[in-house]
């Protein structure tokens, strides 16, 4: 490899590293979301999101093959990594009809506590919990988790 190509390659690598550090390439991603169930926790990353000026599309409908059994009272307990979102929308959809049918239950939180607790009024069964979170400056993310309601 001649000297011009080595210099060009070095400058290209330096530029890529610099842009990654600025969030233009790679950048940060939204925080994970942890669902606490009946004796088990599962943490998932965002599917589709826009974060720090970058947008990524997840598979839709998402593949949900792990179900966390909720406690006997059916309470959904969620916790975000930092930073926590400014607002969020929760929807519970029957696993058998997701995403074609209307949600079995949903709620919107304009103020998000450190630990989110929600007890949807739905019959026992397997559901897909869809969480859409919004942060300031146009950041948003969608998460999907499988839950078993006793």
Secondary-structure blueprint:
Elements lengths: L2 H20 L10 E4 L4 E4 L4 E3 L2 E3 L10 E3 L6 E5 L6 E8 L10 E5 L6 E3 L6 E10 L5 E10 L1
Parallel strand pairs: 5-11
Antiparallel strand pairs: 1-2, 1-6, 3-4, 3-11, 6-9, 7-8, 7-10, 10-11
Structure description:
With 150 residues, this protein is mostly beta strands. 13% of the residues lie in helices and 39% in strands. It is built from 1 helix and 11 strands. The strands form 2 sheets. Strands 3, 4, 5, 7, 8, 10 and 11 form a 7-stranded mixed β-sheet that branches. Strands 2-1-6-9 form a 4-stranded antiparallel β-sheet, with no helix packed on it. The longest helix has 20 residues, at 3-22. It is globular and about 40 Å long. 23% of the residues are buried.
Give the end-to-end Cα distance, rounded to a whole number of Å: 66 Å
Which strand-content bin applies to the residues? 35-45%
Helix content: 10-25%
Counting DSSP E segments of at least 2 residues, the number of strands comes to 11
User: Unreliable runs, pLDDT <50, ≥5 residues?
Assistant: 6-27
- Helix count, per DSSP? 1
Name the assembly state. single chain
What does the largest sheet look like? 7 strands, mixed
How does the overall form come out from the CA principal axes? Answer: globular
H-E order: HEEEEEEEEEEE
Radius of gyration: 20 Å
Q: How confident is the prediction overall: mean pLDDT? A: 85
The secondary structure category is mainly beta
């Amino acid at each position: 490899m001649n000297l011009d190509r080595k210099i060009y390659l070095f400058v290209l690598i330096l530029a890529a590293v610099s842009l990654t550090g600025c969030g233009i390439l790679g950048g940060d991603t939204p925080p994970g979301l942890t669902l606490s169930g009946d004796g088990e926790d599962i943490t998932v990353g965002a599917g589709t999101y826009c974060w720090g000026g970058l947008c990524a599309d997840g598979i839709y409908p998402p593949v949900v093959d792990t179900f966390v059994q909720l406690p006997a009272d059916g309470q959904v307990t969620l916790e975000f990594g930092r930073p926590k979102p400014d607002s969020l929308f929760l929807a519970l959809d029957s696993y058998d009809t997701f995403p074609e049918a209307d949600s079995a239950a949903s709620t919107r939180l304009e103020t998000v506590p450190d630990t989110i607790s929600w007890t949807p009024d739905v019959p026992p069964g397997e559901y897909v919990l869809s969480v859409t979170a919004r942060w300031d400056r146009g950041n948003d993310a969608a998460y999907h988790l499988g839950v078993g309601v006793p």
